[in-house]
Amino acid sequence: MLTYVIRRCLHLIPVLLVVSLALFVLLRLLPGDPSTAILGPEATEAQRATLRGDLGLDQPLWQQYVDWIAGLVRGDLGQSWLTREPVGAAIADRLPVTVELGVTSLLLATVIGIPAGILAAVRARRRTDSAVTGIAMLLLSVPHFYLATLLVLLFAVTLRWLPASGFVAFTEDPAGNLRFLILPAVTVGSTIVAVAMRQTRASLLATLGEDYIRTAEAGGLARRRIVLVHAMRNALAPVTTVIALQVGALMSATVITETIFTLPGMGTLIVNAIFSRDMPIVQGAVLVVVAFVLAVNLLTDLIYAWLDPRITY
Amino acid sequence: MSVPPGMSRRAILGLTASALAATALTACGGDSGGSSAGSGQGTLTIGFDNEPVSLDPALSSAISSDRNLLNLFYEGLVRQEKDGTIVPALAESWKVDGSALTFTLRTGVTFHDGSPFDADAAAWNLKRVIDPATRSTKAGTLSTIASVTVLDPRTVRIQTKSPDPLLLTQLSYEPGMMVSRKAASAAGKDFGRGPVGTGPFVLERWIAKSQLVAKRNPGYWRKDAAGQALPRLDKVVVRFITEPKTLRAELSTGGVQLLRALPPEEYTQLKDNAQVRLEDLGVRRSYYLAVNSTRAPFDKLAPRRALAGAIDRDGVGQTAASGEYDLTATFATKADWFADPTLPVPAFDAAKAGAAFAAAGVGAGTPLKLVVRNRPPDPTIAQLIQANLRAAGLEVTIEALQLESYLDTLKKGDFDLGLGVIDVPRYDPSLTFDPYLSSTGPNNFSKIKDPELDKVLAAGRAAPDRKVRTEAYTDVQRRVLDQSHLVFLHQARSPVIHRSDLSGLAFDLDGQWRLHEARLGR
């Protein structure tokens, strides 16, 4: 097991190197440079040229890449071109917000999606099933930006139960923190609820058709025990995979959601940095996100082994 | 497979219900509609869509919007009132003597870090802006200064190379804002993230792309008319929100009490809200078409003139500005002192424009490239212009680009028409016209090389007398219209929007706010 984990971790290095190169090249293909954001639209060409020199943009591309990678090896992600804030510090400020949003959404999705999936499975092909499946389809189809706007309109503007946007750290005000997170978490979680529900339903239905379930039923075990203990344990493995796969999608969902609700997370950090061509921030932040998603994938593989003793590494 | 209903269903429903209940409970906890930093009696929360890159006034990059925040922390030697008059600020008085400008400074003023404001500090600040090592974006505005001399701790003299009638105006804004030498020297290049001036508020913290918190400066020198200490607010929280819909929702719920700007389609929905005030200070977003004069067909005068009559400005304003617009002949707003109401807005006549294009040798189906920024409502305006020009027989292709590519394309001249917008008024007409019309202007996208125009622009800049300047700028506008160097479209109204319980706002000439007398509550 341990050697497996170490081997997987070592595999991460070439993957991250390839990602870093692709990222660097793609970002350099973007037209424009940060001189507009830093000097304004009415700066002269001479002022822009001086700034490019200051930022090292007059160096050859390979040199810029090597400098960046050399910094990474030393644990230095570089410095924002705009704010001069160290990239590492900027990410350290933002990552907890996005992780909190992601975890809350996943929690919400699991707590609602899995029971709803069980309900749909045990009431398969009846009205309850149709209702739950229908709602899931609707949640899958509604774009996040639209759902977010509707939620703000209902809960912030009309009912005034929740704030329309903003954020306060959990350490500063735990109750306030949750109030700010509910609408974004519901928005991001909406898709995952649907995915979790559909997968649970399908997986549980398949398991309930297995021979050992019939044996358990014949043995007179309580229905509740059969479904929740014997069937669910086996039905959960594919559900875990699907939810884990959502983590990647979740990262892209947080980009839009954080922008609408102005959460100071990785999504807003990356979007704003792209718009102002603050490449060190984009490079650093995207690389961290990629590493994070890879780590979650590794963790998922390990959870399999725990859920299904037949799997060994 | 048959599943008996009952227990399993109840269990599942119970689980789901408890999860929902937990969510609802959290939702109802705490007060509703609060903002992240809390909206206490003396805390003003602002929704701001354009976060500054730097709060070092010498490095400010925005044309004017940064000043809404710079005014919290800094002041200049003088200040320009909304009507254009120059009044004392950190200088109590001044004397103009040819090319010499001598300031007598206020005593007892200190920077937020406790260091004293005196003639040494003032001279150091002015030299700092001019020094090429500072790389100040404002250096050009003070380029006429030859020397700055400290005569005594209260007196500083600026000697210009020749009389500069604009110098006092420039010193009222970013170029003249006084920063603490001690703090600037200690922070070096990071000073822009930690502003230290003499202004009414002191920076508490600034989290990029999230929010900035400033607290009251207890040592602020200025008093109100009744002799009460200023500022009145305990705290100012600036939340950086870029989504117009989020800004509107926050203002409606009281999450923020003041907004920098909203597009017309958003603010018109607030007009019936009794708790919100829309205050029209005359700020306009003035749309225009840059006309590339270096390539056919617009390298000739006749097609440019035909173009000016081919566009339905009212139609564009109705659609793209929800009817909230003025039609003016040029960038001058109706309230500007250099506005000339007799200058005509070119009349729209599609048939006549079509005939004029044909007469000028621009045949039906001539392809044109219209470059536009890819943000609302610009692409909509571009489509309306495309339809107008199609009616006149021209075939327009629209290219919607991100800001950087858009500016690059305009500067390289790879276009026929470029849709642009500037916020007007600026604090001096030279700032409005020169960058776009002067042959050396950084934003002369039309590539105008018109010695006649350069001459009248220079006359407008150099004249000390407002009457002479008015005549010069009327000549400028007349010349631009006559030559159709630019096609001026509608001017969308951009009111300041705030909760009705916020009062005491003061404004710069170009509509940027000053909050030293602002208060909340009736």
Write the layout of secondary structure elements.
The complex is a heterodimer of chains A (313) and B (522).
Chain A: H1 2-29, H2 35-39, H3 45-55, H4 61-73, H5 87-122, H6 127-141, H7 144-158, H8 174-208, H9 211-218, H10 223-261, H11 266-275, H12 279-307
Helix pairs in contact in A: 1-12, 5-6, 5-8, 5-10, 5-12, 6-8, 7-8, 7-10, 8-10, 10-11, 10-12, 11-12
Chain B: H1 7-28, E1 43-48, H2 67-73, E2 78-80, E3 86-88, E4 91-97, E5 100-105, H3 119-130, E6 145-152, E7 155-160, H4 167-171, H5 181-187, E8 201-207, E9 211-216, E10 235-240, H6 244-253, E11 258-259, H7 264-267, E12 276-279, E13 284-291, H8 301-308, H9 313-320, E14 325-327, H10 350-359, E15 367-373, H11 378-391, E16 395-401, H12 403-412, E17 417-424, H13 429-437, H14 451-462, H15 466-483, E18 486-493, E19 496-499, E20 502-503, E21 506-507, E22 513-514, E23 519-520
Parallel strand pairs in B: 1-10, 1-11, 15-16, 15-17
Antiparallel strand pairs in B: 2-3, 4-5, 5-7, 6-7, 8-9, 9-10, 11-19, 12-19, 13-17, 13-18, 14-18, 20-23, 21-22
Helix pairs in contact in B: 8-10, 9-11, 13-14, 14-15
Account of the protein in words:
The complex is a heterodimer of chains A (313) and B (522). In chain A, 78% of the residues lie in helices and 0% in strands. Chain A has 313 residues and is mostly helical. Chain A folds into 2 domains: 2-73, no CATH class; 95-307, MetI-like (MetI-like fold). In chain A, helix 5 crosses helix 8, helix 7 crosses helix 8 (174-208) and helix 10 (223-261) runs antiparallel to helix 12. Chain A is globular, with a radius of gyration of 24 Å. Chain A starts with a helix and ends in a 6-residue tail after the last helix. Chain B is an alpha+beta fold and 522 residues long. Chain B folds into 3 domains: 9-30 and 58-187, Dipeptide-binding Protein, Domain 1 (Dipeptide-binding Protein, domain 1, Alpha-Beta Complex); 35-51 and 208-280 and 495-522, D-Maltodextrin-Binding Protein, domain 2 (3-Layer(aba) Sandwich), CATH 3.40.190; 284-493, Dipeptide-binding Protein, domain 3 (Roll), CATH 3.10.105. Chain B has 15 helices and 23 strands. In chain B, strands 8-9-10-1-11-19-12 form a 7-stranded mixed β-sheet, covered by helices on one side. Chain B has a 6-stranded mixed β-sheet with strand order 14-18-13-17-15-16. In chain B, strands 4-5-7-6 form a 4-stranded antiparallel β-sheet, with helices on one face. The longest helix of chain B has 22 residues, at 7-28. Residues 1-40 of chain B have low confidence and may be disordered. At the A-B interface, helix 2, helix 3, helix 5, helix 7 and helix 8 of A face helix 1, helix 6 and helix 12 of B.
